[in-house]
Every structure is written in C-alpha cells, then in structure tokens.
Write a structure and sequence with these properties.
4-stranded mixed beta sheet, two-stranded antiparallel sheet, alpha+beta, 2 helices
C-alpha cells in the first residue's frame, strides 16, 4: 500500500475524497431474497456503518440515486458536492447525471456499476467486480 495515495482527514487515511462508499449485494431477510446496500466509511479498513434492504433492484437503484450524490466529501469540509445552478436539484436524474460526471472526472465509480470496494488484501486496487451476499438476522440476548 506504500505506493497508494490516501487523503489524511481527522487522523485517518481515506481512499479518496468520499467519506463513505456504497456496495450493492444480494441478501436474505426474513427468509426472503432481497437486495442489500452496504455503506462503509471510506478509510483503508472500510468499516461498515449500515445495511439497507430492498425488495426490488429498481427500489435499490432509485435509493442510490437519492443518496450517493450527497455523500460528504473531504474536499468540501464534510459537505456533499456543490450542485451548480444549471442543475435542477429537484430533478434527481439531473443531479445524478452531474454527480456521475464528477465521479468520472475524479476517476471514481458509482455503486450502480456493481463493483465492490474491498480491503486491499483482497484486491490491490481496493475494489473488484463482485456481488456479496448478506443475511439479516435479529440476535436476541
């Protein structure tokens, strides 16, 4: 990892400008197959912060389009990307298009491409084309 460039922010090394990243997976919740969206802090170790479950792929993608453009950025002091005046903030497709142009310019990718961020010991790039499976269980003490 010595040749990788990280962004130091508040005492931690981040993989890129985004403070959180998303991974799409499949899942099982209440014995029913579903889609899972995993949210991770975008530091070297990728600690998980939450999982959201969706009945359909369309629901999953629609949700991603409403949250991914608003991920906090290190370069913007923990605020999301600034949406310029020519982008209609009420039109999620317009915002989504602007955000994806920004990603491409930064040589990054959206979770909708089904490329998963992974620890560097799994892939030296820190990501791979993979879909993981999660099972949701309520654990009672």
């Amino acid at each position: 990892m010595a040749d990788k460039k990280f962004i130091e922010y508040e005492g931690e090394d981040y993989r890129d400008d985004r403070m959180y990243i998303l991974n799409i997976g499949t899942g099982t919740k209440d014995n029913k197959k579903c889609w899972v969206l995993g949210t991770y802090r975008n530091t070297i170790s990728l600690p998980p912060t939450r999982n959201d479950f969706f009945d359909t792929y369309k629901e999953l993608i629609d949700y991603i389009k409403t949250v991914e453009p608003y991920v906090p950025l290190i370069s913007n002091n923990g605020n999301p990307i600034e949406i310029p005046d020519h982008v209609d903030e009420e039109d999620i497709e317009d915002v989504w298009g602007f955000f994806n142009t920004w990603l491409k310019h930064k040589n990054l990718f959206s979770s909708v491409h089904r490329i998963s961020h992974v620890p560097y010991y799994l892939d030296e790039r820190g990501y791979k084309k993979a879909t993981f499976h999660a099972t949701y269980k309520v654990i009672k003490n």
